[in-house]
Specification:
The protein is an alpha/beta fold. It is built from 13 helices and ten strands. The strands form two sheets. An eight-stranded parallel beta barrel has the order 1-4-5-6-7-8-9-10, surrounded by seven helices. A two-stranded antiparallel ribbon has the order 2-3. Strand 7, helix 8 and strand 8 form a beta-alpha-beta unit.
Length: about 270
């Protein structure tokens, strides 16, 4: 059993436990009308390369990333560093995250927030909406095509944007043919062994139709990589360990985004 399979199996057990504690019918009663003040896809498709900065407590490959830091400290540093949106990893057993982290991030920042988890059940989609997420992640490798379609449809019904993550040509074809994904994330990390290869983005990008929002994930550490990804047509990148583990996360993110913190001038607002 590879790493992804172990995480999915663990997630199945965890969802069953949470469903017993809080039935789906209870979540449905707590659904609120969503506002449109934190549009996720729009944040990724604005001019220039957008950066999604991720709060991730630990990972199977890196271990603990930043001991003692609060979610509020990190996401506010990301906002100061010019992040266009936030990603909050909520998976517990392997990444140390929780829905409490999601709620804290939403309370500490006005940026759009992606709930990043191994979402395999409609229950998690409702959880995401109830806890205020603006978008969710669906990993093609973690679900069947039928479940991918059902989860994507459920998210759309709840007005959640969906980042559909792929790792190879077969998964990209599934993302395009099964759900016609608007936001496609190309993960440079192989979730079966956690190796990273940035060439994955360049190899798959040519097969993505015009008009899709394309995100490159994992293995991104410096501005030169961002410049090259922007040159070939990538709309956004997701960065996590490289900025969260830096001595000054805001400064580390500014070095990637080029954000000065200054208000835009009249010409930039046109």
């Amino acid at each position: 059993m590879n790493v992804l399979e172990r995480i999915v199996e663990s997630t199945q057990r965890d969802v069953r436990r949470r469903r017993e504690q809080v039935p789906l019918s209870e979540l449905e009663r707590h659904l609120a009308v969503r506002g449109d003040d934190r549009p996720f896809r729009e944040a990724l498709s604005r001019p220039g390369l957008s950066v999604i900065a991720e709060h991730k407590r630990r990972s199977p490959s890196a271990g603990e990333i930043r001991a003692g830091a609060t979610v509020t400290e990190i996401v506010q540093a990301y906002e100061q560093g010019g992040a266009a949106a936030l990603s909050v990893l909520t998976e517990g057993p392997h990444f140390g995250g929780s829905l409490d982290d999601l709620r804290e991030a939403l309370g500490a920042s006005g940026l759009p927030v992606l709930r990043k988890d191994f979402i395999i059940d409609a229950y998690q989609v409702y959880e995401s909406a109830v806890h205020g997420a603006d978008a969710i992640l669906l990993i093609v490798a973690a679900v069947s095509p039928e479940d991918l379609a059902a989860l994507h449809q459920e998210a759309a019904a709840l007005d959640l944007d969906v980042l559909v993550e792929v790792h190879d040509e077969e998964e990209l074809e599934c993302a395009l043919s099964v759900v016609d994904a608007d936001i496609i994330g190309i993960n440079n990390r192989d979730l079966t062994d956690f190796s990273v290869d940035l060439e994955r983005t360049y190899e798959l990008l040519a097969d993505v139709p015009t008009g899709k929002t394309v995100l490159s994930e994992s293995g991104i550490h410096d501005r030169a990589q961002l410049d090259e990804l922007e040159r070939v047509g990538v709309d956004a990148v997701l960065v996590g360990e490289s900025v969260m583990g830096a001595p000054d996360p805001a400064a580390a993110l500014r070095s990637l985004t080029g954000y000065s913190g200054a208000e835009p001038g009249p010409d930039e607002l046109v």
